[in-house]
Structures are given as C-alpha cells and as structure tokens.
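With this grant's support, we have paired protein sequences with backbone structure tokens. One protein thus recorded is set out beneath this paragraph:

_____
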Amino acid sequence: MALQLDDLKAVNELLKSWGIISREDEAKLTILGGGVSNIVVKVSACDNTWVVKKALPKLRVSDEWIAKPYRVLIEASCLETIARLIGQDYVPKVLKIDAMNYAIMIEYAGDAAKVWKSELLKNVIESSIPLRVAQAIARLHNASTADEESRIVFWDAENFFELRIDPYLITIAKRHPDISERVREVIKFLTDTRLALVHGDFSPKNILLLSDGRFWMIDPEPAHFGNPVFDIAFCINHLLLKAIHLSSSRVLNIARLFWKEYWSRVEFNNNAELEEQAVKTLSCLMLARVDGKSPVEYLSDKDRSTVRSIAKHHIASATDDIDEVYISLSSCLR
C-alpha cells in the first residue's frame, strides 16, 4: 500500500509540473498492472484519459536488478518509430516526454481493451491473433532493416544488456555452469548481430487487444537495433510456458501458428540461420523465466521443474530445430 501511495504521489507531482492539474484532487489516478520496472498509472482529468509511466531505478523483483531510468525514453522513441515504419494503429500515441523526470504520457487503450496474456491464461484461444501479431512484428523487422534512422537512434544496446542479457542469460549461465558455454554462444550472436529494430519485450502481456479489433504493441523499453530473433524467441517462449501451465495443446498450436507465420513473412537473406538462432535463444529464455532474475509468476513448482528439464536438455544439445522443442512439450500436454 505504501508503494502505491508513493507512486500516486509521484504521478500527481508530474501532472502538476506539466500544467495538467493544479491540485491533487483534480485527477483520478488508478494503478495499472506491470509496475515491476515503472510506475504505471491511468490518469483521468480534464475530460480525458491517459497513461503515465515513470521509470524506476531499481526493478521490483526479489533479486538485485538495476537499470538506467532513461529506458522509458527509449520506449517513447520506439513507439514513435513503430508508428512511422508500420503505422500508428499498432502503438499508442506518445503525448508527452519528460526527459528530466524519466516519464512519459501515452494514449490510453480504453477500458474495454484486453491483454492477450490474460486471455491466454483463461484459455481463450483466437487463432487470428497470433497470425496478425506475427505479421506485424515481421513488418517491423523488415521495414527497419534498411532504415538508417532506426539504426542510429537504437544502436546503443546497453539498455538491452541491462534489461535482458544480464538478468536473463548471464544469470542462468552463472546458476547453471554445466551449460554456461552454450548460453554464452547465444549471448554472442544476440549482441553481435545488428540487423533490425528489436522491440525487446515482445510478449503476450504487451499485446493489447483493442475493442475496435486493432492491437497495440507496448512497452518496448529494451528496444535496440540488433538481432530480431530475440523478439520471436521471447514471444514464443511465453506461449510455450502458458501451454505447459495450462497443459494445453491448443496454446501449443497457437505458438506453432505464430512461428510459422513470422518466418513466412520476414525477408532476410539468412532466414535459415536466423531461425536456428531463434530456437537456441528460445531454449535459453525458457530456462531464464524459471531461474533468471524475473521468473514468471504463474508456473507451479512442478511446471518449473518441467521447463527447467526441457530447456537444459535443448541448451546442452544446441537444438536448432523448433520441431524438437515441440515434441518435448507435447508429451506434457493433453
């Protein structure tokens, strides 16, 4: 409760400094989910509704996880770049950027919007969603490859290192020394390859399903110009984890649809090599979401053991065929 009160006070101070309100009671504030790395608040004032995000210097997880707060400014730049490259329909509008306070204000999705993660966890399956999401991220990767502005603006990958490489991959390499060499091979091709604009947090929790049929890709704090396989592995990892949690072959089929559609849409010269890298990245991310600094919250102890066993097997074997991963999971599902 104390954290929430502090969060609301911080947002009220921002609103006053921006000239939107003069008194605290002029705005209705509601804490939104996803506040591990940011204060995220729905603001209703002056007959309008927005979302205000302010970056936290220390993320709210049990392990020590420090990340520079300028990441929220990278998020704003990425949202604007996505709108420029593939259209405003895919992201909320950025309404204000406060670089001094590491805060932004963005368009609100509406009370009727749904989070794809929540729908999946309720076993609500709509096969058109993974197809459309895969098409959108493929369009972004294709469009950004030759976009010099994206290359320049997002070339610095320090933020990606702090938010993904260190807490996820370096952490599991330290905690599982028996497969650390394989993990470090994945780290190398993720950090050495500079091919496209990478969202960096591309998962069902960051896909908002709007009431008008559109969807938004949100929260690209780890955005950088790098290896696009990270986005695909990151998203499909979350789909596979939910398939295990729900013991659902239907969710596994959603993952298959997403994977197949993406690779049919991207236009890289080395698609086959990148797909193999994506499978290796996937195995590492599976392990990272049970033994890294940010484990998923919905897996049981039995599920975690299953994920750990499958992931370590494929990491050690340097599996680069997605069908081998599917076969491992299929035996766990009904």
Summary: The radius of gyration is 20 Å.
